[in-house]
Amino acid sequence: MPAPNVLRLSVLPSFASAWLLPRVPEFQDEHPDINLQIDMDRSQSFTTRSGNDLGIRYGIADYPGLHTDWLSYDSVLLVCHPLLYQDDSEDVWSWLRHQYLLAGQDPMDYRWDDFLQENGQDPALYRRRLHVSDTWALTEMALAGQGVALVRRSICSDALEKGQLIRPLDLSHDSEYGYLLVAPEHHFRWPKVQAFQTWITHAIQQTAWYRADPP
Length: 215
Prior knowledge:
By secondary structure, the protein is of the alpha/beta class.
């Protein structure tokens, strides 16, 4: 029998660090009787063997034998530290050729070559590349002024709102991937899971990065 007042979440570290953890107090204020336990997990799979009640994953809703509830599609933005791009009279593409281009290594990550080609640029002219396996680490490098990053909007949205990051190009790529809840179907009948499901669905729908429709 699951503990009715303990909700164990399995969450991607990047999403937990950038978006969920800063908002946990909001959930706790609404549901003081539910204690959250957050398990940072980079795996795209989900299992209950570690005691998790619910998973938050990024990708597509392909979890045979499990129930999924779609939350939002995401977009990818080009971002950097404000001090890295101060002269907006400079041609941004020429400037970009001299910067380190930061990108993730996951197969679902948007590639620099694709971004450049879609915007009429020759990728061979942009040689300074650095790939990082962790999306949050990628964002932290951009926050530290170490390069220009292609980052999911969900991960960099708070930093953009605070002015910690800027968008030197007003371009975005609508991703075919997004966030979803996943667990065995009967877990979604538990009151604690239903409470979190209702809260996070509403919270994400209030964000600037929420996208209901696929690209």
